[in-house]
């Protein structure tokens, strides 16, 4: 085709502005200003508009600028209108930032970009346009997680499935995983369906989808899954969108899951002729199904089988024939696929798609992200141009050298090396500490030193691998008076499981603490609903007594139904027993007993949700934190001080977050504690995913290092409490993968705990005696005598492996005591005492009760009445619940 500026007419010679001439200089002056300041690689990524392009953008290389400038270039060159560009991001924040930058570059042109947004927002918009094809109406409701759980509970009840053994939340997670892999109910492998509800998982999934249609509702997974189904079953609809979108741009491509991948693959092919088979739309969509286990098949997630068309989508071939099978966390082992991908036909040449991502920052495999999507981009889009952005504008030379040397140990990567034109800066420091407490002290002192040197706290971050690590830093910051904020989640003591545990302890410490008692009266579930709590409130208000005292009175009457009365009586007896135990055992052991005997630990053990294990770890960390205090009262006072510090009022504060939450952020000073085997890399990830898990953990460490602009400081502890047990740890293997030329070994500033000679006094490990004890205090002697009674005369002193609540067996069970303690026998029985007031009712008074009707008083005991009701018979009630007839 003739270029616009090369059009010639008979007798008129072609003309180009002379170099250096007036026209050339004027055109240069009128050229796009948005290209100024781009480096050669960025400019190439912006100006390469034709065909598939993969931009490998390392950390801090300006990928957001490339994406927005590319859109601006497409529009300014007249290659497409704003509504002909599909630009997909992962978060609403990223979409807003892109729109803001485009508005600054182009003005109001951004207003017409209706197809710039997240996967789910754009998928939802398409689904509303074609809702009738999904048996929905255009005004369908998108359910949130709570609504999903409620709906699934109804389905479990209809199938007579025990929702305690098979929680609705677990089923919701399975369904979400299936949808993330593009699996409709009929496509779920039987082996996967069998893992829930005695083989009814697939049936429940189908019932759930049917129920959604009846309710005119969809969940987040449906926003893409239904689009995919519509595109496959209605090629004319797919062709409409293929013709509409002249350019497709995708951010964070390494984080896409299988469903997002399928959605993009369908849209990213050139329009097909009417009636063309689906296999011509996506290369590799063969007409013959793949036989599981057949030669040439590999095992990866993402199999899509169509019962109607008998076709299979081929995801691409394995990078390494001897590499173990990858697992996204949702896909079952053994999900087959075909590696024989057909080359695209001329009719289906891929259109102008540009994907931006970094395979070295793929850290969300646990929620379905497939790093393989970016690794096989050139296979999915033959002829794709790969542009590497390696010039980093964030970090100093030593930090980049350390991060690049570390990630180079991963085999599953496309390869790039970050570089900078900045100074080398300070070396990455590695510091060892005796234990996690010293680690927190050392980091706290370094932060204070930075603050004294004029550094803002907003420029300082602590990035941890697991949320339970935050507790010690929070306590340390409160002690030092350092303001801090927790990003990506609540503070340690604000987590729901911690608040519940503290509520139990508060009621033991102060029976009049109504707020705490009301929080846990039905946690875990005891059959004490809102009506019971309201009755307790009514009685407490009338008598001006606390809720707990009201409960003691009500359980001796017939106000409640027998089941609720029995549950409430058991709870009251438990609190009485725990208060008695408080006098003879340590407050840490009491906390363990309370969490076990109340059923709270068991509740989380039975919970199959993804965060249940983390909640159990947080509870163990709570118990461990109590060791620093002399008694329960002192601990609760400390917690009150911690909770009193609101996180919203501090303008300048240290940022505390997990490594996963740190993605996309940057700070001048980054502290990275916990670089130990079992923590980073996570032992659970290694056990579940093997080498693939190790590589994702290494990518996570790489992300942590590249958050730092000026200083990156790594820490490891020799002793750390893991799963409730003090464990001697070894430094992370990742430390040996750092380049020695860019790393400096430093001594801990948190006190020399190695021999007890530092300013913090001797370590508790300095004089480790055998299992005897020389304690002679009366409290210790009472505790030992009590233990002797509980163990049939076999007195034990000091540390006891069977009595220790943090034995190795606990880590297997997930509880505080795999071997249940026999509860101490408290002599006597619960006696509901009168409040000391004299009842205004007398014998033979005629009264009326809201529940039991009319009757007359036959016995008076303080404020308790025995009444012979005309229909309900003889009942014991509190006089505040009756009135004169």
**Total beta strands:** 23
Give average pLDDT, whole number: 76
Question: Uncertain regions: pLDDT < 50 for 5+ in a row?
Answer: 1-9, 277-348, 645-649, 752-775, 790-835
Q: Helicity, in percent?
A: 25-40%
Rough shape?
A: globular
The structural class is alpha/beta
Radius of gyration of CA atoms, rounded to a whole number: 33 Å
Main sheet overview: 8 strands, mixed
Strand content: 5-15%
Cα separation of the termini: 101 Å
By DSSP (H or I, 4+ residues per run), the number of helices equals 29
What does this structure look like?
The protein is of the alpha/beta class. The chain contains 29 helices and 23 strands. Strands 11, 12, 13, 14, 15, 16, 17 and 18 form an 8-stranded mixed sheet that branches.
Outline of this structure?
Helix content is 37%, strand content 13%. The chain contains 29 helices and 23 strands. A hairpin with a 3-residue loop joins β21 and β22.
Describe the secondary-structure layout.
Layout: H1 22-29, H2 40-47, E1 53-57, H3 63-76, E2 85-89, H4 92-106, E3 116-118, H5 119-129, E4 141-142, H6 145-158, H7 168-180, H8 190-193, H9 201-214, E5 217-218, H10 222-233, H11 235-244, E6 247-250, H12 258-267, E7 297-299, E8 336-338, E9 352-357, H13 372-375, H14 377-380, E10 385-389, H15 397-407, E11 428-435, H16 436-452, E12 460-464, H17 470-480, E13 484-486, H18 496-509, H19 514-520, H20 530-543, H21 547-554, H22 562-581, H23 587-597, H24 600-606, H25 612-625, H26 632-644, E14 654-658, E15 667-672, H27 683-705, E16 708-722, E17 725-728, E18 743-746, H28 778-790, H29 808-813, E19 846-849, E20 853-861, E21 864-869, E22 873-878, E23 882-884
Parallel strand pairs: 1-9, 1-10, 2-3, 2-6, 4-5, 6-9, 11-16, 11-18, 12-14, 12-15, 13-14, 15-16
Antiparallel strand pairs: 7-8, 16-17, 19-20, 19-23, 20-21, 21-22
